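Researcher: Next entry in the queue.
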Amino acid sequence: MVEVTDAAPLGTGTSPTAPAPTILGALRESGAVFRPVKAELRANLLARLAAGEPTLPGIVGFEDTVLPEVERALIAGHDLVLLGERGQGKTRLIRTLVGLLDEWTPVLVGSELNEHPLAPISVWARRQIAAHGDDTPVGWLHRSDRFGEKLATPDTSVGDLIGDVDPIKVAEGRTLGDPETVHYGLVPRTNRGIFSINELPDLAERIQVALLNVLEERDIQIRGYRVRLPLDLLLVASANPEDYTNRGRIITPLKDRFGAEVRTHYPIELADEIRLLHQEAHTGWLSADGLDAPIVPEHLVEIVARFTRLVRESSHVDQRSGVSARFAIAGLETIAASAVRRAAVAGESRPVARVVDLPSVIPASRGKVEFADAGSDPDDERELEVLEHLLRQATAQTFRARCGGLDLTGLQEHFTGGEVVESGDLVPAAALLGQLGTIPRLAELLGRVGVPEGEQSAEQAAAAVEFALEGLYLTRRLAKDTDGARTVYGA
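Model: Structure for this entry, 491 residues:
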């Protein structure tokens, strides 16, 4: 049994209090030195590697494939592109990079560019230091505020990313040639941090050109201004292979300026798929007054994981589109919601998901799958049949893996006299178990499905027994009749 709860935030732990504000002179006396972002990332990454700590905690299934490539890129000081199908964790990985930054870093108070007091880059910052000297005020910026991102869309402008002339500043009396009339865009405002561009190929090619200087010369150009800003940042982009080659493209000069291109993938091992579900599925908040948090037994988590993998491998599914990890996460959350609904109707205090909740995954998942043979008039019934068949196949595989060799003849013999067992998504655990009486080898069955000895409740027993009944049906040792919300097992 596993109780699925909300996953903890990654890479952005916050210290209770920021360091006290100070002044430039005190910062110098403390021995502080300026360290570029990429040097900061490299040092913190190498320290984690040397200590044997996870470098990017919370990233599942990439330990031996993607993460070593990302680590090498960071150590080399390269900007990078993550290339992979939807739902492979590209954005999660990018956001987790923030955890490799120093928790707090000094900045000049009032700087739009997060300038380090010991390495100012703007006219405004140099003027501040010239005016106030060692009394120039210094504040502290948390690493969670040193991350910026932009979803690339066709309407994104150079002004959004780089900056543009601010007419209000011009109206205040500044001349058009004054660099301080510039309103900085997202990229320079993330100076001394990490900036992410998601789905980079969707960015218009003329806008991609504006990033060339950022990646190579590390400066920006705005409407012919002589604005020389040596930006200090790590630029990370994500792209889908389909978009990369067909719907849009990354222009060749921009691809050449990225130091590394890293291919991501879906979890290779079933165990990683299951770990990802435990980490990402949010079901703890589904509980309400009078109800405990729902439990999704381990065998149902495994079924959802196997189902996801079978859908990805199916010849009926468009492999270029992929099947996102969100497909499995939404499915598991839907199963938990079905258990909560039954508990509310039937008066159970602890919602526990059962096999009878599995069909709810199908309607919840259809919008997340693109079928290869879907034309202008897709066959909805055929798509449902494909998903239902794959779900039965995943259930059968899980039954064989968990209950192979387990003697279930005692349970099967209950039906030899013509008895039946009726279940359904609103049938409570007590009603299901009451139809069976004493169940032979129940403790062993509970152990096979992963229920610890101290947690063997009636709801857990009902979930295990129903799984066994479904397994006997799928291995053709029992019959099953399904009519809407009613399911009847018999000889």
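Model: Residues 380-403 form the longest helix (24 residues).
Researcher: Noted, moving on.
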